[in-house]
Design a protein that fits this description.
This protein has four helices and four strands, in the order αβαβαβαβ. It has 223 residues and is of the alpha+beta class. Helix 1 runs antiparallel to helix 2.
Length: 223
């Protein structure tokens, strides 16, 4: 009976030990599973955060690139418009310059043609323009109105009568007389230049009386 009791007690203890071992094993497995699941969840959460961060970074980079592209395009457009405006202005200026040059050339041609027919001349030693030249001077004023931006030189001349220094001074006075007429006629001061050349640029030979008369003159030319 004692042996049976001891055997039963031994078996019971073995069973309890086996049950305890099984319970501990189950607890360890449950803990391991829970730790694995937690690690998986943490890894998934980390991966999701990283993915979200990457997507956000990619979105920000795309937005920045779009903004930079838009800024660059706007800048290029502004530059192109500025270039186009500058080119347009340059073309307009060149066209205006051509028109002004053509008008100036036409004025000079008309002045030269008038000079070949009619001259404004002076008496010996005088710088006073006679009233009889009003018609010629009005023609000159009309010609100058065709080239309103051109500068005009009024040049004074003399014959060879008198000293050279006197003639230089007299020719300047004659040029100024022409300037004064144009000013009274409404031509702007800034357009006019007075130049006295004395006896250095004769129109005709000073050997004849008629030549000397024609040399005592003023001329008008585009500069």
């Amino acid at each position: 009976a004692q042996e049976a009791a001891a055997k039963a007690a031994s078996e019971k203890a073995a069973q309890e030990a086996a049950a305890k071992a099984a319970s501990e094993k189950a607890a360890q497995e449950a803990a391991a599973k829970a730790a694995s699941e937690k690690a998986a969840q943490e890894a998934a959460a980390k991966a999701a955060l990283e993915k979200a961060a990457q997507e956000a970074a990619a979105k920000a980079a795309s937005k920045k690139a779009t903004q930079e592209a838009a800024t660059k395009a706007a800048s290029e457009k502004v530059a192109q418009e500025a270039d186009a405006t500058a080119a347009s202005e340059r073309m307009a200026q060149e066209a205006t310059a051509r028109v002004m040059a053509e008008r100036a050339s036409q004025c000079q041609a008309e002045l030269s043609a008038l000079k070949s027919r009619e001259l404004v001349t002076f008496k010996i030693g005088s710088a006073v323009i006679s009233d009889r030249f009003d018609v010629v001077l009005k023609k000159i004023k009309t010609i100058l109105a065709h080239c309103p931006s051109a500068r005009i030189e009024v040049s004074g001349h003399t014959d060879t009568s008198g000293a050279e220094s006197f003639n230089e001074s007299l020719s300047q006075k004659r040029a100024q007389a022409g300037i004064d007429y144009l000013l009274r006629a409404g031509v702007e001061t800034s357009r006019l230049i007075a130049a006295g050349y004395g006896e250095s640029l004769p129109f005709k030979s000073n050997a004849t009386r008629q030549g000397r008369i024609l040399n005592r003159r003023i001329e008008f030319s585009v500069r």
